[in-house]
Structures are given as structure tokens and as C-alpha cells.
Amino acid sequence: MNPYEKKRRWKFFLLIFAILIGIASVFYTDSFVKKMQREEANQFQLWVKITERSMLLLDNENLNSIIETVRQNTKMPVILVNKDDVIISTTGLDSTKTMYPGNDKLVYDSLYFVKQLKIMKAQHKPATVKIFDDEFKAYYKDSFILTQLRYFPYIQMGVIFLFLLTAYAAFSSARKDEQDHVWVGLAKETAHQLGTPISSLMAWVELMKSKFDAEDDPLIAEMENDIKRLEIITDRFSKIGSKPILEDHVVYMVISNFIDYFKVRTSDKVKFTITGDEQVRAMLNVPLFDWVTENLLKNAANAIENEGSISINIIENLAKEQVFIDVTDSGKGIPRSKFDAVFQPGYTTRKRGWGLGLSLTKRIVENYHSGEIFVKDSELGKGTTFRIILKSSLTYEPTTA
């Protein structure tokens, strides 16, 4: 299992664990809410009985004070109505919504209390209150504390989710910065270590030329080409972490020159073709962009098991002033679910390799050339097309008739 798969599996396990915690919190709170609902229902029944008894014990001051205390400490709001649904009294509601106009008769804010009564009717069935020979109906709704508890687990899950999201973003940013420092440090050290042996190789080639009079020897010429290639690779590594200098180049020529070097070092069973616009231009850093081309061509060649072909097509999008570079192979293809995963560090389908080529390619295209790279299309057993999008260095003015 590659590191990317391990990381994704750990993310999945953590997500499942967080969901289980959330479900457990919801169930626990729900059981607690149901218990409070039963207690409030019992308290409501007690309020009903006390209301009925209070009218019969008007002359008993001690009992009246006890009854009033119980009624005032009722947690949930209650409305008492007559048989015509006219509000007679309220408990636990906003007292500022009532007033005494001077005749000792309560006047209600009809809109407020009608709304509250509607809520109560929707939440609970009424209880019948018998006072002397009259019957009334009492309604109640859940207390403010119970309502808060009902929504508490969801608020709690939301806060936890936001915290985890913020923490994940912070850790991801810190990890990305750490990875960038590792990339830069490794690249600079590699360039430094390659410098000395390359200089020695150059000196040995010059010595062989002079000692064996081999100025025109084709083998020596190929050795020089490979040494120059090593110099280019060293230059690439030295540029990692530094802002590269982009220059105006003909894209077709840059890619064609690299293919001429690459194809003689690849199997004869792989055929290379380059087509498209030969004049389109873009701002490029040639050593770094050659690295992009090399990684894509190597991956394409490795995907071809026997005979096959690799084609590069260069297209100019005049409307968006962009350059499209499509690299297509006739290899084994990539599953659609892996289109994004192939650019992750450590992802590889080969037994040998670090899985860093396409990750580095994406970094060079996006960070250093302000472009895009993605898997445009792929079909298992038929091949894959990678697309690079670069900003054209040419600007076009619309023509007027």
C-alpha cells in the first residue's frame, strides 16, 4: 500500500470515528430530552391539578401561597383557554405582551399569544381543567431549556466540525510548508552533490579526446551529450525553491528538441509523433519544462508493455489565449477514480519507484508556470491523455469589420 492510500484510509477511519461520536452524542442527548419531556408532562399535570384546587381554597392563605409558589416555578409556558379558545390566563410567557388598561382586565397582544397557542397545540395535547362548573383547556409547550437541549447535539456537532475543519486546514498548510522545505532542501543538496562528479567527468572526456585523438569519435560525442544532460538536471534541481526566469519560446520547438534527445534512449518499439501548431509561443523555463516533458514521456513509455505510440499535440486556444499540450499514449490506462491520485506524492503502480514524478510535474506546471495539468481522458487497455494548459505569450486583438 503506497503512502497516499494509507493517508486516505486514515482519513476515512477518522471520519467514521467522528460520525460515531456524533451519533452517540445525539442518542444520549435524545434520551435525556425524552426524560425531561416526561418530567415536564408530569409537572404540567401537577399545574392542572393545582389550578383546579386553587379556586376551591381561596380562603386558605397558607395553601394559596404554596400553590402560587408551585405555579410560579413551573418551567414550561402554559396558556389556559375557555371552550371558545379565548385566552383566560398565561404562565411562563413574555409578560411585556400583556397590559392592564385600567379596568383590571388583562389585554393580550393577540398576535403574540395566538402564535404561542398555535405552537403549543402543535406540540402537545391539551389537558381539561375543571373550575367549579366550567371546563377549560390548558396547553403547554417545551421549556426553553428543553428546546436548547433538543438542538444542542447538532450545534455541538457543527462546532466540532468547524474546529476539525480549521485544524485540518492549519495542519495541511503546515505540512505543505514542511514538504516544500523538504523538496527544496533535497533538490539543493542533490544539485550540490552532482556538481563535483560532473566536473570530473567533463575533465576525463577532455583528457580522452587529447590522449586518444578522439575529437570526432561518436561515442565520445554521446558521452558529452549525457554529461550535458547531467548538467541540465543539476540546473533543474538548483532552481527548485527559487523563482525561475520565464522566457518567450516556441512550444513546438522546445518539445521537439527534447523528444529528439529522449527517443534515442527509449525502446525502438515506442513510436513518437508531435503534431499541432508550430508557431504558438508561451513563457517557459526550458530546463524545468523539459523536466515536465520527461516525466510525462517516461510515464507514458512505462505504461506501454510491448509496442505502442506516444503522441504530443499542441493546440492554441485563441479565445482564452491559452496553449493546450496533449500527451497521449497507447498504454494500459488509468482508472477514472485515480485521475487525481496520480499527482499525489508517493502514488505509483510500479514495484520500483518513489511516485514523485507526476507530483513534481504538477508543482512545476502550476507553481512555476502558472498553468494547469490534469488527466484529460483515459481508458483501461487503450491509453491515457494528459493535458497541460499554459498561458500564451501572444495577445490577440479582436478584429473589427
Task: Describe the protein's architecture and organization.
With 401 residues, this protein is α+β, with helices and mostly antiparallel strands. It is built from eight helices and 13 strands. The strands form four sheets. It has a five-stranded mixed sheet with strand order 8-10-11-13-12, with helices on one face. A four-stranded antiparallel sheet has the order 2-1-6-5. Strands 3-4 form a two-stranded antiparallel sheet. The longest helix has 69 residues, at 144-212. The protein is rod-shaped and about 130 Å long. It starts with a helix and ends in a 10-residue tail after the last strand. The relative contact order is 0.07. The model has no long low-confidence stretch (mean pLDDT 82). Residues 189-394 form the Histidine kinase domain. One of its GO terms (molecular function) is kinase activity. It is an enzyme of class 2 (transferase).
